Hints:
Blueprint: H1 4-16, E1 20-29, E2 32-37, H2 42-59, E3 66-69, E4 79-82, H3 92-100, E5 119-125, E6 130-136, E7 142-143, E8 150-153, E9 156-159, E10 164-165, E11 173-176, E12 179-182, H4 185-191, H5 195-211, E13 215-216, H6 229-236, H7 245-254, H8 256-259, E14 263-264, E15 267-269, H9 273-283, E16 287-289, E17 296-298
Parallel strand pairs: 3-4, 13-15
Antiparallel strand pairs: 1-2, 1-5, 4-12, 5-6, 6-11, 7-10, 8-9, 11-12, 14-15, 16-17
Helix pairs in contact: 5-6
Amino acid sequence: MKNIENLSAGLEAIFVDGMNFEVFLGVEENGELIYLRGDLDQKSTDGICESYVESVRKFFKNDALCTLPLSEIDARSDVLLGYDLPDKPVDFKPLEDLLVAQNVGDFSFKNHEISDVKTIAIRISSAVSKVIFFKQMYPVSYVKQNQIMLLKAGDRLTYLPSDVLKISGGFDLILFDDYFYINEFKKFEKSFKFYVVAKQIQRKTSNVIIALNIVDDVKSYLLNGLAPQKDFLRVAKSEVLALPPATILQFAVLNQSILGFNIVNSRIQLTSKDSVKKLIKLLNDDYLKSTLTQNDYDSLAKNKMA
């Protein structure tokens, strides 16, 4: 995974090295998502390319922006999440194929309507590198012919008797150098059916936690994953799980009043959704103490210094 500086520089190198700009429309055929090339005239291609590239450059001008592995996701908002999990959503494959594909079929209005378009993939290529920007399409992206559309033509308004597809700037996902970078996690969860992968991770992680023998999952709230998916992603790689179970339990006992745990017979009692959330935070090492002020903190995000 690239840091934000190297990612931005890599994209900029493509933008300034003579670009080939292509738009692909994602449609479903026989229950599978496929991408078809949008047939654009040169004037439209140049206009969209200039506008879209400028929107990407503007996005990367955010000084607070950083990259972070998806497995370490936290509360930060100005972040691109690098997909570092071993199992990938099935809808990654069409984008990976599209990145290197030479012969892609054309989108035809004989076979599809504008409203059939589910996703947009923009491929920008230089002589040495390629990148794909992915966008999910929503109903607001379409203007149907049953609405009256008027276009400015000099000092007059001209009626447009056709459906319209709106492509805004920005992106939901980047595929660059064989690595996926997620812009908004909530959109990603829905667009790529990530819940399938996340559920597998949650089940495996819950079983690992239960095997520590430090919790009593009274109502199976932990096993059923009653906590945000992104929290289980972090727990799966947490250093806390590598500690001796007795060490984790001792910390919970010593800080019982602060953490709000109910501990019976050396087991943390998971009797509510809130207790599961507190346990997940414990295992994510989110409860910190300042050595300077001795204050206790519930950390929403942290960068390891050494």
